[in-house]
């Protein structure tokens, strides 16, 4: 293993993959010997400058996947039991806790759904940005303060000098999320992980925040892992999409292909359940039943019990994630070469 | 406009909350959560109310049921004024008006079994015997698509969607005519959300229910509503038939709101109207039209005079000075705005 490089110069690596996750399994020991397989054999990669959306319903494992990348899984009860996560070829899982702390914030920035809980209520906005800059970029306090003002201006605060002295509770949800973006981008991260960044916000503010994220990405050349359940947001912002169900990726495709050439029965059903502002429907389709809890996954395909195409094989055997068209992968026996013809 | 029977009339409804003065700021103010709202709800229809957080849509719903006391105005349900009724008289009317809440995790008592939860409103009204009550509860649980075994369970044993079904069964237990649903599907996953929306549509048909459906989600509101009202800072800025509102929004706020929704559409890129800033605080609303601080089409009059809801031909009603051209002449820069508008249409 090469020694970790912890500066923020752009890497000269020829490989254009920024992040590679291979065979990741994150399990939770939930007592009485039961194991919740929250993330179960997840592999994907993110290229430099790419926006990848990770979609799924609650309990699908999308947030645990992002927390695993940051190594923020509470342990116990959680544990990364298998797999590798590498950032520009460097194995994150074998870094010391100190080195990992430097990766977080420096190379990987993070934005969460509820900015109120991720900002410290007893410190001013300025303190929190200055702290991050001093810690990660080794700036002097005065330099850090000046940079903090600049950052706040970049994320759209006209009166940054005033905002910097305020406390989180004095700001609205959208303003707090801007501050979170300023903090996340303050160290020019290579990867920005945004976990439901606009879910708690109003639509008009959501549009502002998404635009800001895309501007930031272009300005800083970062990649984005966007975790969301909103298919409209996915269609408008992502380059590629990963669909998760039951702790596994069930479909992976470039954004247009995912919506226009949907393969997996779950993705198909999911897209049909969403009311579309452009389409009038008398009734929405719905998926019968519920997502199985992570400690009670069935033996075979995890969607089989709710799938209208389920065959005997689906109850017996977990399908593998196979690339069936250019960059389009699907985990479904309907598309397996042997047996199980389509419909 | 229409010959349909009105089930609810709201006239000049106001709900103000006092802000307590603090130690250092002696001056107390008012939050005008609902500020002079009037509209009708017709029998059997679904009126959707959309607005962003702080627009007053939840307070409006609560005030109609008098869970929050109105400051002024009239609430007329089936011809009866509710705004001044005492508790006992109110109870008689309230059984016809029920509420379904957003958070099915918080609105069900965790110590009660489903049978008690659904049967409680019936027990309070003391109209059915115990045996009749049990039978009624069983049929309600079946109607909302839950198995009979559910009756003996506690709320925590159910998923979010199932809990919302229990909430709906509870609301239905009084054979209501009118249901106010405040963000009933916002806490649910999309696949479950559609199940609950479909259930609400089925029940509406079966029991001839009228809904006031409050939500921030414009796609959901479009799906379920017949008419839609758009709220901004305590007022209705536009209201009318769903297709007029969605296909031909008149108010600049409605236009911006609709354009901001992220959509799955790779054929035509929607033009987004980006609003600057955030909704102002309801405790300190701007003068004139409350939207003028963010409105891309605002002109002088908007800063000083509050627009009233006016009818535009047969479609929707809108509260915007752009549409009362006669009065605009005395404002210097109004003419160009009106021209701009005619070009747009």
Automatic annotation (TrEMBL), chain A:
The keyword Membrane applies. It is found in: Cell membrane. CDD domains: ABC_NikE_OppD_transporters. It comes from the Bacteria. SMART domains: AAA. It is a peripheral membrane protein. Gene3D superfamilies: P-loop containing nucleotide triphosphate hydrolases (3.40.50.300). The keyword Nucleotide-binding applies. InterPro entries: AAA+_ATPase (IPR003593), ABC_Ni/Peptide_Import (IPR050388), ABC_transporter-like_ATP-bd (IPR003439), ABC_transporter-like_CS (IPR017871), Oligopep_ABC_C (IPR013563), P-loop_NTPase (IPR027417). GO terms for biological process: peptide transport. GO terms for cellular component: plasma membrane. Keywords: ATP-binding, Cell membrane, Membrane, Nucleotide-binding, Transport. GO terms for molecular function: ATP binding; ATP hydrolysis activity. Its main location: membrane. Residues 19-271 form the ABC transporter domain. Pfam families: ABC_tran, oligo_HPY. Belongs to the ABC transporter superfamily. This is Oligopeptide/dipeptide ABC transporter ATPase.
From TrEMBL, chain B:
Keywords: ATP-binding, Nucleotide-binding, Transport. SMART domains: AAA. GO terms for molecular function: ATP binding; ATP hydrolysis activity. Residues 8-258 form the ABC transporter domain. Pfam families: ABC_tran, oligo_HPY. One of its GO terms (biological process) is transmembrane transport. Belongs to the ABC transporter superfamily. This is Oligopeptide/dipeptide ABC transporter ATPase.
């Amino acid at each position: 293993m090469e020694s970790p490089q912890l500066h923020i110069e752009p890497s000269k690596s020829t490989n254009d993959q920024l992040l590679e996750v291979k065979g990741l399994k994150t399990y939770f020991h939930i007592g009485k010997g039961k194991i919740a397989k929250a993330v179960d054999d997840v592999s994907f990669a993110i290229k430099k400058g790419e926006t990848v959306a990770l979609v799924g319903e609650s309990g699908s494992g999308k947030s645990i996947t992002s927390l695993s990348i940051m190594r923020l899984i509470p342990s116990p009860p959680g544990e990364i039991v298998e797999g590798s996560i590498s950032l520009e070829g460097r194995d994150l899982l074998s870094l010391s806790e100190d080195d990992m702390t430097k990766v977080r914030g420096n190379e990987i920035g993070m934005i969460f759904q509820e900015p109120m809980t991720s900002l410290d209520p007893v410190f001013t906005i300025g303190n929190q940005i200055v702290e991050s800059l001093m810690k990660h970029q080794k700036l002097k306090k005065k330099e850090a303060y000046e940079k903090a003002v600049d950052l706040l201006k970049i994320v759209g605060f006209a009166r940054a000098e005033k905002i910097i002295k305020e406390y989180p509770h004095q700001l609205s949800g959208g303003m707090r999320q801007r501050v979170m973006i300023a903090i996340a981008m303050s160290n020019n991260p290579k990867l920005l992980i945004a976990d439901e960044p606009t879910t708690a916000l109003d639509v008009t503010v959501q549009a502002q925040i998404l635009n800001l994220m895309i501007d930031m990405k272009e300005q800083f050349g970062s990649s984005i892992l966007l975790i969301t359940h909103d298919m409209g947001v996915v269609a408008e912002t992502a380059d590629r999409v990963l669909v998760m169900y039951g702790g596994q990726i069930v479909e992976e495709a470039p954004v247009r292909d995912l919506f226009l050439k949907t393969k997996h029965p779950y993705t198909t059903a999911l897209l049909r359940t969403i009311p579309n502002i452009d389409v009038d429907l008398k009734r929405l389709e719905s998926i019968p039943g519920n997502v199985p809890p992570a400690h009670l996954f069935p033996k075979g395909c995890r969607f089989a019990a709710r799938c209208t195409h389920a065959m005997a094989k689906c109850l017996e055997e977990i399908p593998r994630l196979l690339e069936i068209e250019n960059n389009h992968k699907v985990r479904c026996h309907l598309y397996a070469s042997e047996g199980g013809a389509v419909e | 406009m229409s010959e349909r029977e009105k089930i609810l009339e709201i006239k000049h409804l106001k709900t103000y909350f006092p802000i307590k003065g603090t130690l250092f700021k002696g001056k107390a103010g008012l939050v005008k959560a609902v500020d002079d709202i009037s509209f009708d709800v017709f029998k059997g229809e679904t009126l959707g109310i959309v607005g962003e957080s702080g627009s007053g849509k939840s307070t409006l719903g609560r005030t109609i049921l008098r869970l929050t006391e109105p400051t002024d105005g009239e609430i007329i349900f089936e011809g009866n004024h509710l705004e001044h009724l005492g508790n006992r008289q109110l109870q008689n009317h309230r059984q016809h008006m029920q509420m379904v809440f957003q958070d099915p995790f918080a609105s069900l008592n965790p110590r009660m079994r489903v049978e008690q939860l659904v049967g409680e409103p019936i027990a309070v009204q003391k109209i059915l015997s115990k045996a009749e009550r049990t039978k009624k509860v069983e049929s309600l649980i079946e109607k909302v698509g839950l198995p009979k075994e559910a009756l003996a369970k506690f709320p925590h044993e159910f998923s979010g969607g199932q809990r919302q079904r229990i909430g709906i069964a509870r609301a239905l237990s009084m054979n209501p005519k009118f249901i106010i649903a405040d963000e009933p599907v916002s806490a649910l996953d999309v696949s479950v959300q559609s199940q609950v929306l479909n259930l609400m549509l089925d029940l509406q048909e079966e029991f001839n229910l009228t809904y006031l459906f409050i939500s921030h989600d414009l796609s959901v509101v479009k799906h379920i509503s017949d008419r839609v009202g758009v709220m901004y800072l305590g007022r209705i800025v536009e209201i009318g038939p769903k297709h007029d509102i969605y296909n031909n929004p008149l108010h600049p706020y409605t236009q911006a709101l609709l354009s901001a929704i992220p959509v799955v559409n790779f054929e035509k890129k929607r033009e987004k109207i980006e609003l600057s800033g955030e909704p102002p605080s309801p405790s300190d609303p701007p003068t004139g039209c409350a939207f003028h601080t963010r409105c891309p089409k605002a002109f002088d009059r908007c800063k000083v005079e509050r627009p009233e809801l006016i009818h535009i031909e047969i479609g929707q009603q809108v509260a915007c000075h752009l549409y009362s051209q006669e009065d605009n002449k005395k404002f210097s820069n109004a003419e160009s705005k009106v021209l701009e508008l005619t070009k747009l249409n």
